[in-house]
Design brief:
Layout: H1 14-49, E1 61-66, E2 70-77, E3 79-80, E4 83-84, E5 91-94, E6 105-109, E7 128-133, E8 138-149, E9 164-171, E10 177-185
Parallel strand pairs: 2-5, 6-9
Antiparallel strand pairs: 1-2, 1-7, 3-4, 5-6, 7-8, 8-10, 9-10
Amino acid sequence: MAKRRKKIRPPSRFPLILITIGLALLTLWGVHRYFYTRSISLSDAILAAYKARRTATTSYPIHIEIDNITNVPVVESGKEKGVWTISQTSANHFIQSAVPGENGNIIIYGHNLNSIFGYLMNIQTGAIVNIRQSDGSLHTYSVTDTQYVVPNQTALLAPTTHEVLTLYTCTGLLDSLRFVVRAVPAK
C-alpha cells in the first residue's frame, strides 16, 4: 500500500494583508495630520498681523447666504488656547478679521460638509453672497475670483486696506487643498 503524502499548505497571506492595510491607513492619517498642522502653524503669521479690535458695540456676521450654494448661520471663531475653533454646524467668522461694511479682509471659513460649505466649489464668478449682521443690516458681495491653494498659501488671509470678503474650506485628498472665494461689495 502506498503512503499518502500530506499536502503542505502555503502560509496564509491574510495577516500580511491586514498589516499592509493597517500601515496604509496609518500613513494616510499621518499625511492628513501633517497638512492640518502645517496649515494651522503657518497661519500664525497672518494672525499676528491682525489686532484684537472687536468692541461690545461692533456688529458681526450672523448668517451667510450664497446663490443656491449654502444658507447657514455664522458664529464668531478664532484661536483659543493654541487651538483653532471651528463649528460643526455653522460657518465661522474669524473674530479678528474685518466685519462687513468696514475696510479690511472679512474672513469666513467652514467645514466641507454639505450642510455648510460642501457645495462652495460650485460657485461662479459674479455669484451673490449676502451676509446678515447682528444689528440686522444686510451686506451684499459679488464673487470676483475662486482658486485652489495649498495650505501654506496664506496671503489671501492677510489684512487688506479695502473691503474684501474671503471664504474658504478644505478640499482635495485628505484635505490637502483649500478652496478660496474672494468677493467685493456689490454695486
